[in-house]
Design goal:
The structure holds 3 protein chains of 3 kinds. By secondary structure, chain A is mainly α. Chain A is built from 21 helices and 8 strands. The longest helix of chain A has about 50 residues, at about 240-285. In chain B, about 35% of the residues lie in helices and about 25% in strands. Chain B contains 11 helices and 10 strands. Chain B has helices spanning about 1-10, 75-80, 105-110, 130-135, 140-145, 150-165, 180-195, 210-225, 235-240, 260-265, 265-275; strands at about 35-45, 50-60, 65, 90-95, 100, 115, 200, 230, 245-250, 255-260. In chain B, the strands form 2 sheets. A 6-stranded mixed sheet of chain B has the order 6-7-8-3-9-10, sandwiched between helices. The termini of chain B are far apart. Chain C is mainly α. Chain C has a two-stranded antiparallel ribbon. Chain C is globular. Classes of the chains: A mainly alpha, B alpha/beta, C mainly alpha. At the A-C interface, α14, α19 and α21 of A face α6, α7, α12 and α14 of C.
Chain lengths: ~550, ~280, ~375
């Protein structure tokens, strides 16, 4: 294991494993005769005796016995004692009593019998001695556990096991794959096994075998393939080196492509957040001509509603968001109606005054939360179904919470879009926004429509707050951080145009994320702001200018 | 393609770069008769053709009335002349040397075209006197305005104009407090002190009494000769009382031109105004 | 004599302005006497912290006047004037940093402490020259003026108006705040510039220096006020108001509106920069927080409370609000934002003319 530390890399589980095979485990066919064990003992009993020996060689034999025992245990191998021993040995939880030599597991200070699994009360950790392992043994253990998993009925487990073995493929494992691949029904597992076989061929095979294997692995993104090919690219044999080189290039370009895809995804998810934050503003600003500086605080209220809902149902966090969304809509929406009825009503047609008044409201709301709840951030938990990620392949995985945000954003957008385009309320809103006098003459109750529209925009802000509570810290300043970005999105997209808001938000998100790698997060943001400032000079009405009455005229 | 074109354009040696060419020739040249040439003008707003192949010539010193139904393109035409709207194609020249399409509103105003809006627009927070002072011809630069005071000649013109528009008593009143008709007068007064070669007057008598209308008519006819005047008006009686030449606009182009009687008997004009 | 006539003409119809300047004049005489010559145990003695506090208010008042000029008279609601204030402040801060010399923690004669800390080897180009007072004081006006000129030239030429302009001015100051927070910018990042020692050779901690700064602030306010008053009373002022009320009419009368806007905006930015430069040595620190959009909006409300388009209203509003802020944050810190928020709402709803409007109302009632 001389080179292992050089090429070692982090695996998903966080273990440091050597990714380059330097020497295969060759001597595991050693006979058991020399250990002079009573032939009538069971495999487990034999293993137990060997494990307690100091010699790593003996322990190694014990591991082999355990594998055999595990294989015999059959399908429910994951529950078998043999497997438990292997796992605990690997993680360093397997101990033996200093005197009576009983094998125990010591996990988090709890000591239990290694055979019966019964908890041993009043046991002192100091009475037990750890069964030590060395690097070679740990490597063997990992592959042993993986081999046991290969016979698991669960395809996920099998795939995971195969992938783990790929990191350090041995000829034995490759042979094992060859046997198993034919019976394997799951396509992904089979593919992974074939990759393993090819990888082994890269190590061992003849020149032709190697070239053939190179072609086979060329499309794979598995990190061990890359490492292997990188080594082969320096091969003395020109043909092999060239083949490996070009395969490597192909892989690199695929990785790059997936890298771009990831950036795009990050950009779109950031954009979705922006759209969510801005879309309520697009209604109040675009349709009503009101500059609502308290919009950010309405978002904040939505986030705090999520927090309160979770406080009320601590045992059902998974469902809390489904309660929080309508609740946040109501809370922020009602607050919006209140603001409209008490303040904004008096200021129609004076956008700059609405800006100042609503800014005052935003200060009041912030302080209200500070004194009413807490000046610190409050904890909001994520439901379990939002954590985790969708693994497309080994270089591209999309986190689920980002995916949900994108989906949620689109849902909110289209719900609003159809509400404004198709419903009676939408018709009235558009009528009032275009010609208040005429709409009133036609029997539209404009005051009610104003309140409803503002309430709608505010409610959507609340819903955005629920989404944001899953992504960022929830605190009194939450709203402030989003208000300027929201305005930028609305202005960039063109005031009064929902599609403009969507496209502007998404594209600003993507631009931001594309620039981030070389500019850094803060500079990217500054550049985006400068870009928008310059853009407004060129097109003062945004990407998709709206005709008719617009704010600021 | 277009880039190649622009490169070729830049490389041509027989022409001066557009940005180096003098923008406005200072002198208004009306030696050929017309003071305003509008040729093949086209403007469309989102598919709607507001101005459609418009050709119109105004002679120096002429008083021309322009009539036409709503949406005929009268106001859009004024917008083009004063630089507010850029046409899609066509030419607009002030005299023979001044290309209006390459100038901004203030440049056009300084070159000698004054405009009265359809809705009277005066500076409501300024007094009548100040309104006229602001409109007074002269240096309109930023630095000059910091130390500017009217000279005796200008002050005399201002007093005279106050007399003409009948607002001498209201000189120190804020313009916002004036009646609709008085605001119309004030705006006309602002045109007068601006001393333009060409006056564009959009609906000057809307909201005026008959008496006031008569006075406005007199004023406009007295201006003709020294200035050129283009009046857009809906009130036919008023038009009849002042005009000797009338142009009828319809759907963005000239439908008929001639004396009031000729125009009124024109078959196409009758169709447009009375319906098929 | 001519000078006196000139000033009396400027203030002829401006009773608020007369009062403001008179009080300023009295204070510049009284404050040094009460602070320096009345013994410390005498009840009339004015402690130095109070002198500095008042000097700070005066710089705020100058800032408010600069905002009033563009908002009240030109009709441009700038939500980014805090940026010009901060830029002026940074220019002054850079000069004060260089004056520290080798008395910093690291004792480096050329590099300010934070640069040594960041392992910078030499002074960046944009710090060159700030050791000379004349250059630094020139930059106090030039930096905000240039930014305002470029920004204004771009914005006004494209006829960005109304709320759009307000929003992009806000974006401007926000972008600057983010930029100045970065260590790489070379302005001390998060911590900004502080630990100043002396200005023009005078110890900044000395009472007499504090008095000097107070008097300088008072003079700057008075001169700034009179300059704005002169502009407002000139034909330029009438044109500016005309542009505010009927922009397109002004264009058709031959006024190049963009130029008027850009020059007034630039002049106002320079005033704001000078205010910032006087503010920094008195509070002893300048950091990126000064660019915060919140500050810029807050100072708009000073003007609104005082009454826009009345220059003295801006002075009164700035001093009143900041005095209230000092009292509130001392006595009951939690309620200050409530009060400020309520102020925003109530003033826009019920007091669109500000306090000056009330005064006018009473004067009219008195007259009739």
């Amino acid at each position: 294991m001389i080179t292992s530390s050089v090429f070692a890399e982090e695996t998903p589980s966080g273990n440091r494993v050597p990714s380059v095979v330097t020497k295969s485990v060759s001597d595991n066919e050693q006979s058991l005769e020399e250990t002079s064990l009573h032939p009538k003992l069971s495999l487990l009993e034999k293993a137990e005796i060997l494990l307690k020996e100091k010699s790593f060689k003996k322990k190694k034999q014990a591991v082999e016995l355990l594998i055999e025992a595990g294989d015999k245990a059959g399908n429910n191998s994951s529950d078998s004692i043999a497997r438990k021993w292997l796992e605990n040995l690997l993680s360093g939880h397997l101990y033996q009593h200093r005197k009576d030599k009983t094998l125990v597991f010591v996990v988090d200070g709890k000591i239990s019998n290694a055979i019966s699994n019964a908890l041993i009360e009043n046991a002192q950790k100091k009475d037990f001695k750890k069964i030590t392992t060395n690097n070679a043994l740990r490597k063997q253990l990992r592959s042993a556990i993986a081999r046991l998993d290969l016979s698991s009925p669960d395809a996920e487990t099998r795939l995971h096991a195969v992938n783990n073995m790929l990191d350090d493929i041995t000829p034995e494992n490759a042979a094992l794959f060859k046997n198993l691949a034919n019976q394997e029904k799951n396509k992904n597992v089979k593919k992974a096994m074939q990759l393993g076989i090819a990888l082994a061929a890269l190590n061992q095979g003849s020149k032709e075998d190697k070239i053939k294997a190179i072609k086979e692995v060329a499309g794979s993104l598995h990190p061990s393939v890359r490492n292997r090919l990188a080594l082969l690219a320096d091969n003395e044999d020109k043909a092999i080196a060239n083949a490996a080189g070009s395969a490597l290039q192909k892989i690199e370009s695929r990785i790059k492509m997936f890298g771009h895809a990831e950036t795009l995804f990050f950009g779109i998810s950031l954009g979705s957040v922006l759209v969510l934050a801005a879309i309520g503003l697009a209604i109040t600003f675009g349709v009503m001509g009101v500059i609502n500086m308290a919009h950010g605080e309405l978002i904040m209220l939505g986030a705090y509603t999520t927090y309160l809902v979770q406080q009320l149902m601590p045992n059902a966090i998974d469902y809390s968001l489904f309660v929080a969304i309508p609740a946040a809509f109501m809370v922020s929406g009602l607050m919006g109606v209140l603001i409209e009825r008490t303040v904004i009503r008096h200021l129609y047609g004076r956008p700059l005054e609405t800006l100042l008044a609503t800014f005052g409201i935003s200060l009041i709301l912030q302080q209200l939360v500070r004194t009413g709840v807490s000046p610190q951030n409050v904890p909001v938990s994520n439901p379990s179904w939002m954590s985790g990620s969708l693994e497309i392949n080994s270089v591209l995985s999309l986190t689920l919470n980002r995916m949900y945000i994108v989906l949620f954003c689109l849902m909110v957008f289209f719900a609003l879009y159809f509400l404004l385009r198709k419903s009676a309320l939408g018709l009235q809103v558009r009528a009032v926004s275009q010609n208040r006098q005429m709409a009133r003459a036609m029997g539209v109750r404009s005051a009610r429509v104003d309140a409803m529209t503002f309430g709608l925009g505010s409610g959507v802000a609340g819903v955005a707050g629920v989404a944001l509570s899953q992504l960022t810290n929830v605190g009194p300043n939450l709203g402030q951080n989003y208000i300027i970005d929201s305005f930028m999105v609305v202005v960039f997209g063109g005031v009064g145009n929902l599609w403009g808001t969507l496209i502007a938000g998404l594209s600003l998100g993507v631009i931001n994320k594309v620039m981030e790698p070389w500019a850094g997060a803060v500079l990217a943001k500054i550049l985006v702001l400068v870009f928008i400032i310059l853009f407004i000079q060129k097109r003062p009405r945004g990407l998709f200018p709206q005709k008719g009455r617009a704010a600021g005229d | 393609m277009s880039m190649l074109d622009s490169i070729r354009q830049t490389m041509r040696r027989d022409e001066v770069f557009p940005f180096m060419a003098p923008k406005v020739s200072e002198l208004l040249d009306v030696s050929h008769g017309p003071i305003l040439y509008l040729e093949d003008l086209n403007v469309s707003f989102d598919g709607f053709k507001a101005i459609n192949d418009l050709n119109l010539y105004i002679d120096a010193g002429e008083l021309r009335c322009i009539i036409g139904p709503n949406g005929a393109g009268k106001t859009t035409m004024m917008d083009i002349i004063t630089g507010k709207t850029q046409p899609d194609s066509g030419q607009a020249w002030f005299g023979q040397t001044i290309d209006l399409l390459r100038m901004t509103e203030p440049e056009i105003a300084t070159a000698g075209i004054g405009r009265k809006f359809q809705k009277p627009t005066v500076f409501e927070y300024h007094s009548v006197y100040e309104n006229l002072e602001l409109a007074m011809h002269g240096d309109k630069g930023v630095w000059h305005s910091l130390i500017a005071h009217m000279n005796g000649e200008q002050r005399a013109l201002l007093d005279e104009t106050l007399e003409t528009i009948g607002l001498k008593e209201q000189a120190q009143q804020t313009a916002g407090a004036l009646s609709h008709g008085q605001k119309q007068w004030l705006e006309i007064g602002m045109l007068l002190v601006q001393n333009p070669h060409l006056l564009l007057v959009d609906e000057p008598v809307a909201g005026m009494t008959h008496q006031e209308m008569d006075r406005t008519g007199e004023l406009l006819t007295s201006l003709a000769g020294k200035h050129s005047v283009v009046v857009v008006e809906h009130d036919m009686d008023f038009v009849r009382s002042i005009a000797n030449k009338v142009t009828v606009l319809h759907q963005g182009s000239v439908l008929a031109e001639g004396t009031m009687d000729e125009v009124q008997n024109n078959q196409r004009v009758i169709e447009v105004y009375l319906g098929e | 004599m001519i000078l006196f006539r000139f000033f009396s003409n400027l203030l002829k119809d401006d009773r608020g302005g007369q009062a403001v300047l008179l009080i300023l004049f009295l204070m510049t005489i009284l404050v040094p006497v009460l602070n320096l010559w009345v013994p410390a145990d005498h009840p009339l003695h004015m402690p130095t912290y109070l002198v500095t506090l008042m000097g700070k208010y005066l710089t705020y008042a100058l800032l408010a006047v600069s905002v009033d000029l563009v908002w009240g008279y030109l009709g441009i609601l700038s939500l980014g004037h805090g940026a010009f204030f901060a830029l002026g402040g940074y220019a002054m801060g850079m000069y004060l940093m260089r004056q520290i010399g080798d008395r910093g923690v690291y004792g480096n004669p050329d590099l300010p402490d934070f640069m040594v800390f960041l392992n910078w080897k030499e002074l960046p180009w944009f710090w060159q020259g700030f050791d000379m007072s004349w250059f630094a004081f020139m930059m106090v006006a030039l930096a905000p003026g240039l930014l305002a000129f470029v920004f204004g030239w771009l914005a006004f030429r494209s006829r960005v108006t109304g709320v759009y302009l307000s929003i992009i001015t806000q974006a401007l100051t926000y972008a600057l705040m983010l930029a100045f927070f970065r260590n790489e910018m070379g302005f001390g990042g998060n911590n900004g510039l502080t630990d100043f020692k002396e200005i023009l050779g005078f110890n900044l901690q000395a009472d007499s220096t504090r008095i000097g700064l107070f008097i300088a602030s008072a003079i700057a306010l008075a001169v700034g006020y009179l300059a704005c008053r002169y502009i407002v009373l000139s034909k330029l002022g009438r044109i500016v108001v005309a542009i505010r009320d009927e922009e397109s009419r002004a264009r058709f009368l031959g006024y190049k509106v963009e130029r008027y806007k850009v020059w007034i905006f630039t002049f106002s930015a320079i005033l704001a920069g000078i205010a910032g430069a006087l503010y920094v040595p008195q509070v002893g620190i300048i950091n990126p927080g000064e660019f915060s959009p919140l500050n810029s909006i807050e100072l708009v409300i000073w003007v609104a409370i005082g009454g826009r388009a009345t220059l003295y209203g801006a002075v009164v509003g700035a001093i009143l609000v900041n005095y209230a802020k000092t009292v509130f944050t001392g006595a009951m810190p939690d309620s200050w934002l409530f009060a400020l928020g309520a102020l925003f709402v109530l003033v826009t709803l019920y007091l669109p003319q500000g306090l000056a409007g009330i005064m006018r109302h009473f004067r009219k009632a008195e007259a009739s």
